[in-house]
TrEMBL record:
The keyword Metal-binding does not apply. Coiled coil: none annotated. Gene3D superfamilies: Vaccinia Virus protein VP39 (3.40.50.150). This is Class I SAM-dependent methyltransferase. One of its GO terms (molecular function) is methyltransferase activity. Pfam families: Methyltransf_25. Keywords: Methyltransferase, Transferase. The keyword Transmembrane does not apply. Residues 57-142 form the Methyltransferase domain. GO terms for biological process: methylation. It comes from the Bacteria.
Amino acid sequence: MREDKNENRWDKLLQIHTMGRDDSRSDLYRYPYEPTPYCVLERMANTGMIRKGNTLLDYGCGKGRVDFFLSAQTRCQSIGVEYDDRIYAKAMENKKAAASGARTEFVLESAENFPVPVEVDRVYFFNPFSLEILRKAMARLLESYYENPREIQLFFYYPSDAYISYLMTVPELEFLDEIDCMDLFPGGDSRERVVIFTIQE
């Protein structure tokens, strides 16, 4: 119950509507819409790893919670990519009212087709899609990196073993850090963490 209160409180503060899960367009490749809990985002914002000069790319952004919250808390710019037109429409609706709407933009596109802007240097994933699509998204990210070499940090919340195994095999990636979130939820789920990788010049 306390969790729901925190979720409601932040949605109200940010003047957005992002609660609830949506399975209606999920399949083997694209997973259901489920917003990242605000308590996890608070922990991420407090690391100092995302700041005013950064541009955050949020894959499978849903209704835009990560984008609105992190741009409000850290003053970063954010770009949300969403393939589901109905959920994208909700993100755009939120943008009109959101306190941090001016620093956020949303793109209706599938991750594997989205050309990553050269200013992007922070990337967020909350298990938005299958490993197959992750590989294609990673290829897009690396294209952007080689076009404009810079340090890019990738944040993976609640990562699957398959994701971690794959990421460990990408030569350009280096494990950087981990934000433990197990204490935020009951049940002792070891996936409750944000694993951070970096691509460096």
